[in-house]
Amino acid sequence: MRELHTRLKQLFPLGELTEQRPDLAFVTVPAAFLRPTLLHLRDREGFTHLVLLTAVDWLEEGQFQLTYLLTNRHAATTLGLRVMLPREDARMESIHEVWPTAATYQRELREMFGIDFPGSPRLHEEFILEGWNDIPPYRRDFDTLKYARESYNERPGRETHDPATHMKQKLYPGGA
Amino acid sequence: MKEELLKRVVKGPDGVEFEVEPLRDYYCEAPPAVHPPVYAKIVEDLFNWARSQSIWILGFGTGCGAIEMRPLMTPRFDAYRYGIQWRPTPRQANLLVISGYLSVKTLKRAIRAYEQMQNPKYVVGLGSCTINGGMYWDSYNTIKRLDDYLPVDLYITGCMPRPEALLAGFEDLKKLIRAGKAEGANQYAENFDWYKTNQKRVIHDWDMPDYNW
Ligand code: SF4
Q: C-alpha B183: how far from its chain's center?
């Protein structure tokens, strides 16, 4: 991984390498350099498989983080490329020509986070939700509980127990 | 509304052009009607006995609870010995088992499936999710109280209920049917507007007729 990182760093302005496991590491890439980095990894370094493309909402920092997880099957190593985007009017270059499967992830991210990927096929078709009429539900400023309370009727009389206290009382009734 | 449901002019294979209006042409518009009991109680009892012995479940799984229906179809639990079997289409079924949480998207399909089933028909809700939301009580996309949207005749509790619980539940349903208490379909017809209001409150892209069968 370190070697790979050193090699890549000579070509692209990458961030620091975060090694999670010997076979799994993450590195930050500026948005403009994502595509060349992906192509280089795919064609020169054997990272042929896009495992997933997902997002994290860093609400406090006003940023979205996209994670492109790539695997090199022969070397059994996985590298995650992180791209930080401004949260406001978030958009990112589409990579559906690099990996056609990315189109599906991008459709999901558009629907659940409201991140735009101009040019991605069928991007604006509904993916999982139907007739959604609020802000994208995976954004952290979306209040799930409030929405659920307002939208769906409840049955009165529902009780909720904190699992830890409940099990403690059950297993050690006298207190331990 | 989806394009395929809009009124339009189409050209047949023989070159003749004609107008189709899917909502009117492909669906029956008449709302459901209450099915009154027959003239004599003893005859109705006989009918109900026969109905209770003829339970055909629609093979439509909505949530995780659907997985518990599979063992029932195999020798280990073998529901067929109780006269219960599964059918692949609503037209051939009379019991809709809502097997767990219902997302709004699935609810729409469940309503269509239910309305396409023929009378007499019954609904069983499986698991906590159908009763009060279960562990999906705070989800942005699942309903929490099935009987607001479909007429439920019986609930089976558990998360998820074991096949034994389902068998016991089916036996209870038979008792209800025999006692003439499984009147969900009539309830649906009587309170049709109330059900539709509830359904439309959560299904925002309503693009089907109010009653489709
Ligand atoms: S009650 Fe439990 S098993 Fe059933 S659908 Fe809900 S979470 Fe799944």
A: 13
Q: Which residues of chain B have pLDDT under 50?
A: none
**β-pairing, B154-156 with B17-20?**
unpaired
Query: Is A176 inside any structural domain?
Result: no
Q: Is A144 within 8 Å of B202 when comparing Cβ atoms? A: no
Disruptive mutation site among A153, A159, A161 for chain B (greatest number of B CBs within 10 Å) = A153
How are beta strands B122-126 and B84-87 bridged, if at all?
Answer: unpaired
Residue B47 domain-assigned?
Answer: yes
Query: Rounded to whole angstroms, how far apart are CA atoms B112 and B102?
Result: 14
Percentage of chain A with pLDDT > 70?
A: 99
Helix axes B104-116, B192-202, angle to 10 degrees: 150
Look at the alpha carbons of B204, B207, B211, B213 in this order and tell me if their dihedral is positive or negative.
negative
**Tokens standing for residue A161:** 């127990």
Question: Which residue range is the domain that position B82 belongs to?
Answer: 39-202
The residue type at B36: P
Cβ of residue B203 closer than 8 Å to a chain A Cβ: yes
CB-based contact, A128 to chain B, within 8 Å:
yes
Write out pLDDT tens, residues B150-208: 999 999 998 889 999 999 999 999 999 999 998 999 999 999 999 999 999 999 988 88
Judged by phi (left if over 0) then psi (alpha if -120 to 50, else beta), residue B188 lies in alpha
Cα A55–Cα A61–Cα A65 angle in degrees, nearest 5:
20
Q: What domain count does chain B have? A: 1
Which CATH number is A39's domain given?
Answer: 3.30.460.80
| A146 in any annotated domain | yes
Q: Nearest CA to B91 among B117, B55, B57, B113?
A: B117
What is the least distance, in Å, from the CA of A107 to any CA of chain B? 17
Residue B203 to residues A86, A144, B61, B145: CA-CA distances in angstroms?
Answer: 33, 17, 20, 14
The whole-angstrom distance between B83's CA and the closest CA on chain A is 33
Instruction: Compare CB distances from A151 to B108, B137, B202 and report the shortest one's residue.
Output: B202
pLDDT tens digits, A108-167: 999 999 999 999 999 999 888 888 989 999 999 999 999 999 999 888 888 888 889 988
How far apart, in whole angstroms, are the C-alpha atoms of residue A5 and residue A15?
9
